[in-house]
Amino acid sequence: MSYSLIFTTAFAVALVAGLLVKFWLASRQVRHVARHRGAVPAAFEHTISLAAHQKAADYTIAKARFGLVEMAWSTALLLGWTLLGGLDVLNRLLLSWLGGGMVQQLALLAAFAVIGGLLELPFTLWQTFRLEERFGFNKMTLRLWLADTLKSTALGAAIGLPIAALILWLMGAAGATWWLWAWAVWMGFNLLGMLVYPTFIAPLFNKFKPLDDPTLKERVTALMKRCGFAAKGLFVMDGSTRSAHANAYFTGFGASKRVVFYDTLLRQLDAAEVEAVLAHELGHFKHRHIVKRLVAMFALSLAGFALLGWVSTQAWFYTGLGVQPNMAATAPNDALALLLFMLAVPVFGFFVAPLPARLSRKHEFEADAYAVAQTSGADLSAALLKLYQDNASTLTPDPVFVKFYYSHPPASERLARMTAA
Question: Where are the transmembrane segments (predicted)?
Answer without folding.
Answer: 6-25, 68-87, 107-129, 150-172, 178-200, 294-316, 336-355
